[in-house]
Amino acid sequence: MSDKTELTPKQIVSALDTYIIGQQKAKKAVAIALRNRMRRLKLPEDIREEVAPKNILMIGPTGVGKTEIARRLAKLTAAPFLKVEATKYTEVGYVGRDVESMIRDLMAVGFNMVKAEMQEGLKEAAEQRVEEALLDLLLPPSPSKKKEQSNPPFLLNSAFGSENAETVQGSQKTESEDASTRERFRQWLREGKLEDKEVEITITKQNRMPTMEIFAGGNIEDFEETMQNITSMLSGGRSKKKMLSIKDARRILLEEELDKLVDTEKVSEEARKRVEEMGIIFIDEI
Q1: Which H helix or E strand runs over 181?
Q2: Is-contact 250 199, C-beta < 8 A?
Q3: Less Cβ crowding at N or C end of the chain, within 10 Å?
């Protein structure tokens, strides 16, 4: 986010030119407005609250680029973006949807955006965990190995000392062979030679966050309480076993590992901050 706050109006217009033909006056106006919003973020916190970002009214027939300008601005600044149709909203919500649900929906978009960004940074660690999990599925411990783990051999200074020593040497040899086999399977996994082999995995069904109507709170002050509900929702779920190919199992296990690694408290805090400071709601059909 820091490098994006350094964009000048000229750079913003240049980026918009890549996707939108014409509309130079409109692009210049929104670029200046976006730059002013970015400058607001650099103000001291006590002063920043006194400088409210202004709305932008774009007027024109269908197809001239109003929505695309707003969408590209959001992508350019990594800002949560939500397009709504004004005809579906009313002032008090007795007919259609409540106007406040726009903010709830934008928060959901922001949460999903930040979560995806954090997961991308944790992908390498998650892939390593998934690789170990797949190897465990492909090479489960033998019955004798399980028995050894539950009843490990112990040494006694007695006449049977040499016999115990032989047992330990045999165990070490077995462990060395197992390690060699595991590394061989690891290489095959990385080379893609086992993609069609089937394994049995336990799938935990988690409630995914939809992009609409997830926040129970009626306004932005209720966000913290709502995020606690989301955290408990994400941690819950039912489990079932299923036979899948390595290719499909890897994808599902990766999703589960990424969910475990992501700190939902950090996600919610960053999402709220981004929505408050950079969120864009595009109201169409006014």
Answers
A1: helix 161-191
A2: no
A3: C
Q: Does the pLDDT value for residue 148 go beyond 80?
A: no
Assess whether pLDDT exceeds 70 at residue 5: no
Q: Fill in the DSSP letter of residue 219.
A: S
Q: Which residue has the tokens 């969910």?
A: 259
For residue range 231-278, list pLDDT tens digits in order: 555 555 567 888 889 989 999 999 889 988 988 889 999 999 888 888
Structure tokens at 117: 């960004």
Q: Could you tell me whether strands 97-98 and 198-205 are parallel, antiparallel, or unpaired per DSSP bridges?
A: unpaired
Helix axis angle, 161-191 to 123-138, nearest 10°:
120
Number of residues written out for the chain = 286
The better pLDDT of the pair 33, 147 is held by 33
Residue 119 neighbours by CB distance under 10 Å:
18
CA distance 190 to 195: 10
Query: Would you state the structure tokens that stand for residue 113, as one six-digit string?
Result: 């955006």
Residue 127 one-letter amino acid: E
